[in-house]
């Protein structure tokens, strides 16, 4: 995982017009385009618009706002068998996936395809060729298994870790470029913790997760058996693998720790200093093996983790290393191998861990693979048929209006002193919005794909992407790059660039609707825009300055006041019970909750400013303010399987959706006024526990 994905904070009717103007000449008809694409909108799944007839008027908005807006919809919309959650985001993802499928099919059928269409077409054709994949079995990765079986010393293990990493197959730790925390204009190398097969370190120790650990060990045994190991030996070796990972887990940071202390990512050292910390895994050799000149400095994040890896290279028997490497090699490749491997991968990671009932159809799985390996290549095709210039222009207006509302909020803060406020305003002035798709597309020259092997294409793209990323180390940051593809239904804030990013696929109902009034759009995408802006001022984003550098710009008194306010929000979400005996982790979810609260507040003010002097249309008997808050809740309508919810409560920095629907509005007097709520109602927080931050 790239560091930007770890520290960037995400929120979680199409046009056939091109997103960018084509080159034309005045005196000649354009030549036929061999890569021309079309979109049949009639076959696409519907979008999820708010409708007043979905309201459950038997419920009181002031006491059960989530039930009032979403109760009927949630009861009527079960989770599809191939999913573990279902709501507004997932419905748009289905729509985006349907568009992507049309494009991939066209690319694969185009014998004259070039560039990104050739790449996408190769992935689609080989991924959909089940007969070829099943015939090849495990053969495409047999060379890797043979190399692992030949390891005969700890030194040989260390060398294998280096050579496999150079192919983009790093089993033990994350490694890649990101902006220097202290000089955000330049990329440096970061080495992160990793190596675990379970979602969080707690899965190896917590009593309430013991069943998942046991199931994981059984999964390890099954994968080793599928790889050709005798069943009895596979069972023994699975215990060794789990013991190996448990040792790594002891020195790993939890999801909560990593999400709530961004400084953990940054530990600048020289390669020589790093070598002293990890004598059995020298970083000077590692940089050389990756084709990199040893830098003056890089970030060795979570140094205790890397020290333990070095110790294990000296202490753990080679046979245990072989079992660990064999398992993770096969397990990582399983989604792209024959049916038995795919089914076992699904049985554990999707069914056991997250409660998914059915394996996704092959087409959806292949599109997931394309997204994970060459997503921006497909995105270049996506925006030609699925995102109009008009939508981008309207979004730019919304961003401007939200920015102005945020400015007013910042200027009016009573709890912040002038010195800190000046720095906050400088940060506000330097926000960079990105809407729809990149201004400059990524270059894919050099990636060789074909129709011979599905996993061959995956491995080629994996190595290509890894080397492409390594090429950024020691060079200026390219501020035009995106961390999400245009077809992703999401948005994010990157503190190192102080940028807010909104991919094309999220710019549809209920978030953004060209046919809807201001109330709906400000309650939807407007609040999302505000959310991403406020991330620049949440408990971690606020540790970066206007230039994206990790610098403290707070006075001691203001930092203390801010912490007191955020503690109130932690307490609010700690009190929400997500399922019997399991509550929301207010600290884990703090950053997102700050962003929801501030984002909704500034979106409301931006809406009032945009509609100032106009008559309230009273649509479907609802006021403009009521529809604003109703669409906010519509965005967060979502069902989860119990297993999915359990994983999210441990690892997800976002609170479960039903609490996001009610959490921020309950702190806003504007909500109480909109629905004529009274003191004492569940959705009305008194002066003593109402949280107001930004």
Keywords:
694 residues; alpha+beta; Neutral endopeptidase, domain 2; Collagenase (Catalytic Domain); four-stranded mixed sheet; 7% strand; globular; disordered N terminus
Helical fraction equals 40-55%
- CATH fold-type name of the domain at 387-438 and 482-675: Collagenase (Catalytic Domain)
Give the percentage of residues in beta strands.
Answer: 5-15%
Superfamily at the CATH H level of the domain at 387-438 and 482-675? Answer: Collagenase (Catalytic Domain)
**Distance between termini?**
31 Å
- How are strands sequenced across the largest beta sheet? 1-8-9-7
Averaged pLDDT, please? 95
Poorly predicted sequence stretches spanning 5 or more consecutive residues: 1-5, 13-32
Instruction: Just name the CATH architecture of the domain at 387-438 and 482-675.
Output: 3-Layer(aba) Sandwich
Inertia-based shape: globular
* Radius of gyration (Å): 26 Å
Largest sheet: 4 strands, mixed
Concise account of the structure shown:
Keywords: Hydrolase, Metal-binding, Metalloprotease, Protease, Signal, Zinc. The chain is of the alpha+beta class and 694 residues long.
Molecular structure report:
With 694 residues, this protein is of the alpha+beta class. Among the domains are: 138-336, Orthogonal Bundle (Neutral endopeptidase, domain 2), CATH 1.10.1380.10; 387-438 and 482-675, Collagenase (Catalytic Domain) (3-Layer(aba) Sandwich), CATH 3.40.390. It contains 26 helices and 12 strands. The chain has helices at 3-7, 65-76, 88-109, 115-127, 130-136, 142-149, 154-166, 210-226, 231-250, 255-260, 271-277, 283-289, 303-315, 318-333, 339-354, 362-386, 389-411, 418-429, 454-470, 518-535, 556-574, 590-610, 624-635, 642-651, 657-663, 669-674; strands spanning 9-10, 85-87, 175-180, 183-191, 268-269, 298-300, 432-436, 492-494, 499-503, 577-579, 582-583, 638-640. Strand 3 (175-180) and strand 4 form a beta hairpin. Helix 9 crosses helix 14 (318-333) and helix 20 crosses helix 22. The longest helix is centred in the middle third of the chain and has 25 residues, at 362-386. Residues 1-5 and 13-32 have low confidence and may be disordered. Keywords: Hydrolase, Metal-binding, Metalloprotease, Protease, Signal, Zinc. Pfam families: Peptidase_M13, Peptidase_M13_N.
